[in-house]
Structure formats: C-alpha cells, structure tokens
Write the structure tokens for this entry.
Amino acid sequence: MPEQIIPLLILYLLLYGAGTAVAIVLFLYLLLCRGKAIAPDITPPERLRRWAAALFGIMALVHVWWILFYTYSNDTHSVIYGLLVAIDCMALPPVFVGTLLSMLQDRRRPLWPIVVAMTPCAVLAVLQTALPSIDLTTPNMVYGLALAMVFIIYMVVAVRQYGRWLRDSYADLEHKEVWLSLTLLIDLMLLLMSYEYTDNYVMSTIAHLIGFPLAGLLLWRVETLERLTPLPLPDMEGSYYTIDPSLTGRGKGVGLSAKCWRSTARTRSST
C-alpha cells in the first residue's frame, strides 16, 4: 500500500505546484497585460477580466497557504486550520460566482447573497475547531453542496434570460458558446467542491488534471467575449427619440422606441 501511495503523492504534489504556477501566471497576465493573446481584435468586458484575475489570484493564494499549513503544521484540529477553512469559504466562492455572473452583460447582479450564504460555512469551520467533540463537518458539507445546487439552478435561469436578451437586443451576434462556457465552468465549481470535501488523493489528482483545461477555457472566454455597449442615439432637432434596449442592434445603428415610431407616424399622416 505505501508503495502505491508514494508515487501518487508525488504526482499530486507536482500537479499542485503546476496548478499554483499556472494560477499565478494567469493572474499576472489578466491584471497587467494590456494586449490579448487569443483574440486581439475583440474588446472584452473589463469587469470580466478583473474578476477572472481575482479568481486566479485567490486560487494561487489558497494553494500557497494550504501547502504551507500542511508542511509546517498539519494539525486539522488547530484554530489556524479553522481560520484557513473560514477564509477559504469567504474568499474563493464569491470571486468564482462574480466571474460567472460578469459574463452575463444584460445587467449587474448583486454578490452580497453569496457572501451571506457562505458565512455559515465559515462559522461552522471555526466552531469545529473549538468544539472537536461535535461533528460539524458533515452538516457543513451538506450545506455547501446544497448551495452549489441552488447556484446551478440560478445560473440556468439567468443564462436563459441572458439568451433571450441577446436575441432581442443583439440578434446578429453569435453567442452560441455561452451555454458551453457556463456549463463547463459550473462543472469546475462542482469539481472544486469535490476537491475541497475529499481526502482521497485519487480524486484530488483527477481534480487537478481536469482543472488545467478548464482554466484554459476560462481564459478563452475572457479573451473572446465581446463587450456589448449600446450606441448613443444622435440628437435630432424636431424629433423625440428614446433608446429602447430591446430594439438595439449591432451594425444597425440604434433602436427607436415604440413611442418614437408612433410619433413619426402621426407626423407623416398629418403632412
């Protein structure tokens, strides 16, 4: 048995170090580089780029502080362990959710619900170290999995609304890949949760192996998602114009509201 564990542990540590290095490189690239390596001719949303940089940066920090903890302490009943788990709960899920939500450009969605929802996980993690005789880890895991399922359902609804908004406002844009991107990224969230809630080196190694292509997918999504900005309507004297987002189209100027069309029709009929 030890002969089988040692090679797997070595592979796990190599993947762990490689994942940390990739996260640091992507964090610095998204934060500092002005140019884009994948799609130089596309202007992506700056908000999405900042959220993705924050996600990779926090992932790198999480890797660093856990490897330092297991190297120098490895005491899972200590207060430091509980605090690290609490920080992990309050740091990684909000930036991950923020990255996913920033891909949906129809409106800005608040992040305070995920912060409030993750607070019990952090509190239970700290209480577990203070009350080692009581099993608080199991209810914490169940609560975290329930939150993941609720968020997946929310994202499915939000993406459906976003698809309708794209069809109404930007009918000539090709955004067919938004479902693929969000679906795979939600899979990454489930993969990260399985990695968080298991001590099995096999599952952790598989999670790291799958994490590399998913990190590449996130970078591709950040670089290729085009920023959608409604064009301003020119001010024309003698006419009453309002911008209706549901009629706005890329390459077609801007949309006129129904009120504007009715006003124009009345003017023509009177002449």
